[in-house]
Amino acid sequence: MTDSLLRSLRERVLDEGEPLAGLLRKCLLLGAETGSVSLRDWARLELNGYVDESSLPDYRKISGVPMSMDSMSGNTWATGQTITRMQLPASTWQYVPEYLFLTQPIEEIGRLAQEKTLRFKPAGLAMAQSVWNGELGPFQSIVDLSYVAPGSVFAGLLGQVRTKLVDLIADLTMATPLTKLPRREDVDAAMIHRIGNVRDVYATTLVNSSGPTAVGSAATASAGLDVDAVLALLSTVQHAADVDGEETSEIKEALAELRDVLTKDQPDTGEVIKRAGKLRAIADKLGVAAISSATSSAVTTLTGLALKGAFG
Q1: For the chain, what are the domain ranges?
Q2: Which of 6, 71, 264, 295 is least surrounded, with the fewest CB atoms within 10 Å of its CB?
Q3: Is 0.70 surpassed by the pTM of this model?
């Protein structure tokens, strides 16, 4: 078993057509066979995704991702304006980290890499939009603010993980015959050299996240927000509904119901989840991009707080 596992990893890791997920699962087994907790933890997090941005290795942190802005000034609409973090008001910077944190499982990263362009809006960016709108004058509004990134960003991440695997397996097979099992100390040393001090980094337990940004169709990020901040995010939904016109009465009613639950002295978790789910369903049915994006950010953050016990 040991012989075939080591040979399989060395033979397959250079095959560009070999799925990374399969190689990482072999690393899970190799970590178990050698007793290397660091190898197992790294492989498992790459496969399952990272829950906290503080546990991310540097190669999963991307800087300088541009944003796309849609705005309105009086009767003038401007869409698809490209801006950077530094062009946002300073009051919003605390909600928009300098780095984009790619927390997704490696297989989801692979799917995202196939897309030409991706747009996404984490909770922090929705909060920044709400704060910015609060500073604008009459008849001015930021209608939408989203990150825009090419699929090549995700393809580049896949390439870095594959290169690290090649280096890691090369280090192990250089010092150990394929017919023998590497010592745990050798595996851990190779992990520190190629990935970092994994056992310290991956011991992190998520209690209250502080600014993670997630990407993709199931993008989630709690961004360390509290109930007051969630209410501000709901104001972003309200603003988008007001801009869209009279066809949004149903979503405005759902917003009012959710606010009523949240502003009670001891909000009931079940009721919060129920009202949030209703709001998301109405937004999805309405099919207005700005409303759907703002609602997704607010509801995702709210659900995360509920699951962490923020309510009664």
Answers
A1: 2-58+155-201, 59-150, 227-307
A2: 264
A3: no
